[in-house]
Design brief:
Length: 351
């Protein structure tokens, strides 16, 4: 019998929502003149931005009676600035920004100078009015635990393990949090990085730098901490090329990531159901559009109020949850040579 996990996700979202009502003023509903401006970073680093976040944010904010303008910078910081200028010229009552290599900083400053509150979404922006994201240090801790679990399954002492770190883009504030969480777990267990090449959110780059690291290590590696599924996929192409299978971490529960988990090429992926994050951000944006002053029960080091959502570690037996939540398609995951792996864990299409 398939497990319906959506109720638990909704419960998680409601925890964040409680904080949003803590200091709100009485409001009679949405003001049709209120406008939320949203800038997404790209469509390449993760499929979630266009396939998940855009429709979820649009539906929630418009259902509350407000208008919303959602645009995507497509990985171009210049385009990011142009979009922001156009949005601010047309008028914004709240801005929700996913940072792209620091491009959101000047946009935030311009918006705040006009008295427009800014929500940093998914990626932190120093000085934002609010930050809504998954608990990114916890994401890293789960990734680090996946590496340790894989080493344990292979009978390898973490203190003796040859582990390569493939991190994310240092311009993304989340990358430092993932790193903090992962290293606290891995190095707490005795791991010392054997190689740590510069990271980006890019599979080809990850493949290139990992291949060089593997060469420098004489072809010896026991595990790889990869900061997301895209980077993990790049690493796995090189492992495959060299006939190696070792524990590899990741996050995003992407189709490729879930397939690699099922095939045993990736130990686990950290699942961050966008619906929960988008719901928390939408509730916050709607509260601000209604003239409320929400409070948060957490804060970043710079004092930014932080609405945090909990991530979920997904191994082969948890892939069904992602399918049941509607965040992955059974037919897409279980195509080709992955079909037998799906059968082994009893995966089924969502009801």
């Amino acid at each position: 019998m398939k497990k319906n996990s959506w109720a638990s996700l909704a419960a998680t979202a409601s925890v964040a929502a409680i904080a949003l009502t803590a200091c709100s003023s009485d409001s009679g509903g949405g003001d049709a003149d209120g406008r939320a401006c949203v800038i997404l970073p790209d469509a390449a680093s993760s499929p979630r931005w266009e396939n998940g976040d855009r429709p979820a944010l649009d539906e929630a904010i418009t259902a509350a009676g407000f208008s919303v303008d959602i645009q995507n910078a497509e990985g171009d910081t210049g385009q990011y600035a142009t979009i922001a200028e156009q949005q601010l010229t047309q008028g914004c009552d709240v801005m929700l920004l996913v940072d792209l290599q620091g491009a959101a900083v000047s946009v935030m400053e311009n918006a705040q100078a006009e008295g427009i509150p800014v929500i940093a979404y998914d990626r932190p922006i120093a000085g934002a009015d609010y930050y809504v994201s998954f608990d990114n240090v916890r994401v890293g801790e789960l990734e680090g635990q996946a590496v340790l679990d894989g080493l344990d399954a292979n009978g390898i002492d973490p203190a003796d393990a040859v582990v390569v770190y493939i991190g994310g883009d240092p311009a993304d504030g989340n990358a430092a949090m993932f790193y903090e969480g992962a290293t606290s777990v891995m190095e707490g267990a005795g791991i010392t990085a054997a190689a740590e090449p510069p990271g980006l959110w890019d599979g080809e780059h990850s493949a290139t730098v990992f291949e060089q690291a593997l060469t420098d290590l004489g072809g010896e590696v026991d595990a790889v901490w990869a900061a997301n599924d895209t980077n993990a996929a790049g690493v796995i192409t090189i492992l495959d090329k060299n006939g190696l299978t070792v524990p590899v971490s990741g996050q995003d529960a992407s189709v490729a990531g879930l397939q690699n988990v099922l095939l045993g090429k990736q130990t686990a992926t950290v699942y961050k159901p966008f619906q929960v994050e988008a719901e928390a951000a939408s509730e916050l944006a709607i509260a601000l559009l209604n003239g409320e002053t929400p409070e948060a029960d957490m804060a970043l080091e710079d004092g930014t109020p932080f609405i945090a959502v909990d991530p979920i570690l997904v191994g082969p037996s948890e892939v069904q949850q992602v399918i049941d939540d509607g965040n992955a398609d059974y037919d897409e995951i279980c195509a080709g040579d992955v079909a037998s792996a799906c059968d082994e864990v009893g995966l089924e299409a969502a009801a």
